[in-house]
Amino acid sequence: MNIVILAAGTGKRMRSALPKVLHPLAGRPLLAHVIDTARTLNPTRLVVVVGHGADAVRAAVAAPDVQFALQAQQLGTGHAVQQALPLLDPSVPTLVLYGDVPLTRAGTLKQLTDAVGQQGYGVLTVTLDDPSGYGRIVRDARGKVLRIVEQKDATPEQQAIAEINTGIIAAPTGQLAGWLASLKNDNSQGEFYLTDVVELAIEAGIEIVTTQPDDEWETLGVNSKQQLAELERVYQRNVAEALLVAGVTLADPARLDVRGTLECGRDVSIDVNCVFEGTVTLADNVTIGPNCVIRNATIGAGTRVDAFTHIDGAEVGAQAVLGPYARLRPGAQLKDESHVGNFVEVKNAVIGHGSKANHLTYIGDADIGARVNIGAGTITCNYDGANKHRTIIEDDVFVGSDTQLVAPVRVGRGVTIAAGTTVWKDVAPDQLVLNDKTQTSKPGYVRPVKKKS
Ligand code: UD1
Ligand code: CA
């Protein structure tokens, strides 16, 4: 089967410089969702019709299996499909989808194409409480489809019809080419309507098949920011529902956003207002506190992530404790049973098994061994103004509070660093390291007092 995705429209009502089909739903362009669904149907050809913002649309979804047809002027949906014809295989049917209708289930499309077969003509229709704005499905007394009438061309009786055209159709490609060539634009919008093909197919002796989706939202399109926000909620509700079915505990399914894929083990629990982006994996018994943002990360079994923790591009082992207010940046690797506490930032660094950095610390470009204790206010000075350097801290080191480690530097196993030390030279194992400082006290000191004006 060929699949054609119409994505040439302007999307004026979005009031945006971004082409409509590139507006993100769950963090990805609307069109990318449609392409994903199309791919699951294994099309022989996959053609996107571009027009408005063509270069940006092409760049955003370019892939070896996607071809583009340019519709330089938007002269109607029929005209749009016509532009794709040279790229289609005429020997198999064509399914037409819309770049701004992102949530149609693959199963719904499969049902339509199965019903249509190789030679039939099918339309996905849905019955709406408020059908206004849509093309109406006109049937005869016996229920046979006669034609589709656009809202703007419909009589009052036709406007009362609740069954509408979703726009999604399946048709035999060779014949479709002939029908499209004979379309006229003598209608209220002066456009070449794809919907008019229905009558031409009937004239050719084909009976129109219709199928319906399980859910109305599968056919909803995005024309405005309001509709985009509504579909975002539908998408997120579906994701939350699937997580609940899989056994994940969600404090509130309405306060979770997944922009990518979230894989969860058994007995995972997620508190309110968490955002997951990219690919995130949570192993068994992971607990995520409220207001966490987690992107491209794996988190090991039994690990607890406390409130307001931000994780990006990190790998966390089992039984670790993070946050509240921890920040893991790309390349952070936390081994099992490690603790990274409040206002601790870790970047491109390994925190070894059972090691702890519980308060107010920056660890960047570092390798920290096992059972290391990092005191509050410790900073790896990894940047000399031009280059980044590594700090190596071996097993069982005790780092006193307010320590600066000026990289490149290595601290040997078992070393104790006194509070307030600046370490700028390597330290051999099992030593105490401190800077010579004196503490001076001045007796009888009198604090200044504020002058009276
Ligand atoms: C179309 C259908 C209508 C259906 C409705 C469902 C026609 C004539 N009407 O109406 O029966 O109920 O969709 O939402 O088909 N597009 C192009 N090139 C064009 C025109 C449109 O690529 O020249 C694309 C648009 O970007 C959009 C889609 O086709 O994604 C639908 O076009 P639109 O103008 O919104 O059609 P409707 O008037 O809503
Ligand atoms: Ca429209």
UniProtKB/TrEMBL annotation:
EC number: 2.7.7.23, 2.3.1.157
Family matches, as InterPro entries: Bifunctional_GlmU, GlmU-like, GlmU_C_LbH, Hexapep, Hexapep_transf_CS, MobA-like_NTP_Trfase, Nucleotide-diphossugar_trans, Trimer_LpxA-like_sf
GO annotations of cellular component type: cytoplasm; membrane
Any one Gene Ontology BP term: regulation of cell shape
Source superkingdom: Bacteria
Binding site residues for Mg(2+): D100, N223
Presence of keyword Ribonucleoprotein: no
Gene3D superfamilies per record: Hexapeptide repeat proteins, Spore Coat Polysaccharide Biosynthesis Protein SpsA, Chain A
Residues at which UDP-N-acetyl-alpha-D-glucosamine binds: 6-9, 20, 71, 76-77, 98-100, 135, 150, 165, 223, 329, 347, 362, 373
Cross-referenced Pfam families: Hexapep, NTP_transf_3
Annotated region (N-acetyltransferase), positions in chain: 247-453
Region described as Pyrophosphorylase: spans on this chain: 1-225
Broad EC category: transferase
Binding site for acetyl-CoA: A376, N382, Y383, S401, A419
Residues in MobA-like NTP transferase domain copies: 4-130
Subunit structure as annotated in this protein's UniProt entry: Homotrimer.
Its biological purpose: Catalyzes the last two sequential reactions in the de novo biosynthetic pathway for UDP-N-acetylglucosamine (UDP-GlcNAc). The C-terminal domain catalyzes the transfer of acetyl group from acetyl coenzyme A to glucosamine-1-phosphate (GlcN-1-P) to produce N-acetylglucosamine-1-phosphate (GlcNAc-1-P), which is converted into UDP-GlcNAc by the transfer of uridine 5-monophosphate (from uridine 5-triphosphate), a reaction catalyzed by the N-terminal domain.
HAMAP family in the record: GlmU
Name of the protein in its database record: Bifunctional protein GlmU
Naturally occurring in which organism (per UniProt): Paraburkholderia megapolitana
